[in-house]
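Posted in: Protein Modeling Q&A

I'm a second-year student putting together a small comparison for a lab meeting, and my supervisor asked me to include a predicted structure for 3-oxoacyl-[acyl-carrier protein] reductase. I've never done this before, so apologies if this is the wrong subforum. The sequence is pasted below exactly as I got it from our records. If anyone can share the structure token output, I'd also love a short note on what stands out.
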Amino acid sequence: MNRIDLEGRVVVITGGARGIGYAVAQRALRSGASVSLWDRDNERLARSKHELGELVGEHGKVSAVTVDQTKEAEIDAAVSKTLAAHGAIDVLINCAGITGGNGTTWELDPNVWRQVIDVNLIGPYLVCRAVVPQMLKQGYGRIVNIASVAAKEGNPNASHYSASKAGLIGLTKSLGKELATKNILVNAVTPAAAKTEIFDSMSQQHIDYMLSKIPMNRFLLPEEAASLILWLSSEDCAFSTGAVFDLSGGRATY
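Accepted answer (user: helix_wrangler)
Welcome! Here is the predicted structure, written out as tokens:
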């Protein structure tokens, strides 16, 4: 495994207690960063913080903040707690998200639709809104939004999820242009499905459908996602912003 240089950087990861977010935290710590995990699952958050403590480097550390990213006051408090613990926020990984189950567009509950949009799109917007002013003060920042290949293709029986992630790509492009001259780069990745706990909220039929669409005939490994996400979080990524990077095993070639 090559080492991505994040020495001395502070990385905030929403949804960092599990799945791709947790893999990103592991790789970030091995790369010399400090990590602040933001998640709404307090019990899982405490366990993940304890486990990650074993990977802390000479100068890094791990903190954890319980936060619901759909609530502005909790996000503002999370920023304050992170700055108190680490002194800066250099990198933001917007990884928290939900699937909302499966169903045709006309059968899905409108309340579930709204919840998915709230968590997957409005949540990252609110987090960016709270974190970007700090990055502007610092004169440096990297933001990576975890979208989905569903944003490009529109998965059947997942219109709420597909629409929320397509919106996240739009947010990435707009924010990337707004910050292009500020030394703050904003990019997105569009993973195919990674076999994590998010599968628990999907039907087997939908899981089989997703696998059938991947030319490499396997699901994404969270560690593979972490490699690309953290390169985008580093100074090595210097001339890409408002861009979308594929992680779909050949499913989407654009």
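A couple of things worth pointing out for your meeting: The mean pLDDT is 95. Residues 110-138 form the longest helix (29 residues).
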